[in-house]
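Running log. JK asked me to keep both predictions on one page so they can be read side by side. First protein, sequence followed by its tokens:
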Amino acid sequence: MARNNAMNLRLNSFASFDDAMDMCELLARETGEKYTVMSDSQLGFTAKKIGSNISSLNKVNSDAGLKNHEFRQAWRGFVSNYLQILVGVLLLINPYRVMSLVFSLLDIENIPTWFNLKAIGELLGVGGLLLILYGLRFIYSFFSEKLYIDDDGIILKKGIIAQSQVQIRFGDIKTIGVQQGVLDRLLGIGAVHLDSAGTNGTVDIEFKNIIDPVSMRRDIQRMIDDYIRYHG
């Protein structure tokens, strides 16, 4: 006789123990794995593969580790700034050596008499100082931007004294994108883009220089699926 008990196949949730037991027997025949009946969050029963509890627990703990945690840009993502500072230091300390190197690269042997080496050297020294200051801007970028994940969604905070925040709830995230250049892939970093449902493709949150952005995208997608499962 057919049962009238309600079940939700999308959530693998069954209203009765017998239905869940039948599913365990079916899965065991089809996959060759052993399954058992467990209670679920829907106040029903579900079929769970024996031995999968540890991996599921690790996955839950991994997601819990991301929540209520702040993420900052990786220091390795500011390589271009480091190079700017290095060039600036060389220009500031010994601009004439830099000029000599440039003349050698350009194969210039005779310097025109009108070329004022002292004035050009002083100008390069000033340029080196400005280049150092420009390269140091990464310090502000590191401390002024942070990504925060809570139980409801993702928040991008900008600023040190005056701050602005952008928040997207898990249920409103439409797409998750990852952008990595050649150097980013070598360094294991990249940018994560989050689009919300009401912005017509406009990037609501963009966080650069994050370590292992592909894993971050996968973890965020899993949190979105869990949020929709329990709140949808």
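And the second, directly underneath as requested:
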Amino acid sequence: MPHRRSTPMRAAVAGAIVAALAASPALAAPLDPPSGGNTWGAELAVIDADDVNVTWTGSGLRLADTARPAAAQRRAAAQGTLLVAPHSLAAPASRVRADVVASAGRDGAVEVSARGWRSGAWTEWRSLSGAAVFDQPVTRVQIRVTLTAERPSATPTLREVRLVTDSVAAVTAATPGLTYRVYATREGLVGGTTANGHVIVSRDHFVALPSARGLAPKNTGDYTVRVCTTTRSRCEYAPVWDIGPWNTKDDYWNPSSVRESWKDLPQGRPEAQAAYQSGYNGGRDQFGRVVGSPAGIDLADGTFWDGLLLTDNAWVDVAYLWTGSGTRGRIGSGPLNIRSGPATSNPVVGLAATYANVPIECSVTGQSVSGPYRTTSQWNRLASGHFVSHAYISSVSGAIPAC
């Protein structure tokens, strides 16, 4: 049976909700633009395919439908997200702050987050309640808005977001290539909708993590994990397209200095695991439910059955690839076979999902392959030591050296 869980985003526990909510359309004290930085206003009126359940009314951004979603979608509150187009900065910056004009009401919530582009990849999402600080200067900033209605009568509304960037002393970066052993469960739920708006299909390939900080927009691999069996006999690279299991504010892979919740737990230990194994938080998750498994990651059916060849829930080794560095290649057509060597005669040792961003160490010359992007004898060696044909790589960030 799939591990089913609800992921409500209640206003009372929604975490980093913008604190400076205002009922008046007048902005609070204006932000002072720093020397060398820039300011801009987020474009809230443009709704397109990567946005979920939001609408622009002419006076503000609201939920298109405040009814609670179907039970199969696992969320007990109505929720919508707006992904604003990335904004190119006039000068690199490491901090972004925001003035937010919004009204949430008793049963609603408005959350504004930001991420930055640096070294060929996106940072994690950071709340703009206060300021978002990145570990190194970024050249682009993207804003994400989340509206939540606990009751159909709630009308959370966002009217304006104005932003300013500057640079501050770098904060301690997360250890590159963080990898932890966590318990994996099968998500299933074919026909349901993930937190980023993807409709789940049979034998799908993605994962869910219990924090929106690593949630990739629909049809992207901006946040990709490598999931391997504990024997490393099988691995899959898959994008993070859903939130769960159990919690929604548990970025357990991060150090306590930046971890959103449960800061007293060791880095790499999911709250659900601590609750299940040692009675942490009274054995309950953030919503007060008794935790029934130590799960720290959910796997879509294709990832579970086809990528890892699992037949039951199991412990796995997960690498949170956006915490790493180096060249990344985007899988344009998948699920793509990962092989032990640079030829189709070599054994298949796993899969790479469409849109996954895989870490490429170097390239070798192997069997010539005709793929959707080119015919080539180039094979890329991944950080796992496995190989994929370059014929299926749609784009690359960074240079690929020879092995």
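Observation for JK regarding the second prediction: The chain has three domains: 11-166, 179-323, 328-397.
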